[in-house]
């Protein structure tokens, strides 16, 4: 049985900018703390910017994980406290949180869900281990946003984008798909035609597949395995509340949008 959580939410604004915070990797020695804090500050200082958490916020190396516990700059308990502390001021703007494969280490080994705890007590937002479908009303317009952490992806940019597109296998007709895991920043726009039985019509839906990026600089695990470097940061999406409009854009380019 499918375990996607459907979360219906409403934001009474003329527009919003929704940022995907994926693959932060707090505790990894290549974590770009400066860039992460700049993104958090941007969310905090702009009333219409909201965010979703897409997993692998913590490095969370344990004795049973692939990576060594000695490679971390702080133990998992301190990583969790850091994430809680740095996102405290933007907690009320989080629209949903899912678990990544790094947090899943604790869920699998000791039945402790680190992100579930933060989502419940700090962000107070919907949480699901695997996937969330946000049914989001902005102003007068509804948007469907499917978010999952992702898996696989291969070593090329094309393979990583294919991994993002694979999310349509869970829910085929969402408008926006946010995924992570591959650390790539990229967007694919792809239409789909859906037959609506109620009105006996065929409708075209433009779908945006967003590979959300990361805050983990090149080195360590990626360099050891000759993986390609990726540009850092997040991708966000502008959602119109008056005019139906979807515009994916690099989070750091948010200020070029005119409203």
Largest sheet: 6 strands, mixed
Mean pLDDT, to the nearest integer, reads 91
**Quick one: overall form?**
globular
> How is the largest sheet built, in terms of strand order?
1-6-7-8-10-9
Instruction: Report the radius of gyration as a whole number of Å.
Output: 18 Å
Helices, by number, come to 6
Separation of the first and last Cα atoms: 42 Å
Please report which band the strand proportion falls in: under 5%, 5-15%, 15-25%, 25-35%, 35-45% or over 45%: 25-35%
Low-confidence segments: none
Helix % is 10-25%
Structural class label: alpha/beta
Strands, count: 12
Instruction: Spell out the helices and strands N to C.
Output: EEHEHEHHEEEHEEEHEE
Layout of helices and strands:
Blueprint: E1 5-11, E2 15-21, H1 33-45, E3 49-53, H2 76-86, E4 94-98, H3 104-110, H4 114-123, E5 127-128, E6 131-138, E7 141-148, H5 157-165, E8 176-179, E9 185-196, E10 201-212, H6 221-224, E11 235-240, E12 246-250
């Amino acid at each position: 049985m499918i375990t996607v959580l459907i979360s219906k939410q409403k934001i009474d604004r003329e527009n919003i900018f929704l940022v995907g915070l994926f693959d932060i990797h707090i505790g990894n020695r290549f974590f770009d703390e400066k860039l992460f804090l700049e993104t958090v500050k941007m969310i905090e200082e702009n009333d219409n910017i909201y965010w979703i958490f897409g997993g692998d916020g913590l490095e969370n190396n344990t004795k049973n994980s692939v990576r060594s516990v000695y490679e971390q700059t702080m133990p998992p308990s301190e990583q969790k406290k850091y994430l809680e502390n740095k996102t405290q001021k933007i907690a009320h703007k989080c629209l949903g949180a899912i678990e990544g494969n790094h947090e899943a280490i604790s869920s699998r080994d000791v039945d402790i869900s680190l992100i579930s705890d933060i989502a419940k007590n700090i962000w107070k937002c919907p949480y699901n281990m695997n996937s969330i479908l946000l049914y989001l009303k902005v102003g007068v317009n509804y948007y469907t946003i499917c978010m999952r952490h992702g898996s696989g992806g291969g070593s090329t940019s094309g393979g990583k984008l294919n991994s993002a597109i694979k999310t349509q296998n869970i829910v085929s007709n969402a408008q926006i798909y946010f995924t992570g895991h591959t650390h790539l920043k990229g967007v694919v726009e792809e239409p789909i035609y859906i037959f609506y039985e109620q009105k006996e019509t065929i409708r075209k839906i433009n779908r945006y597949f967003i590979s959300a990026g990361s805050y983990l600089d090149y080195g360590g695990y990626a360099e050891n395995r000759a993986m390609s470097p990726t540009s850092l940061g997040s991708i966000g999406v502008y959602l119109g509340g008056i005019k139906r409009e979807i515009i994916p854009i690099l989070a750091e380019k948010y200020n070029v949008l005119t409203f």
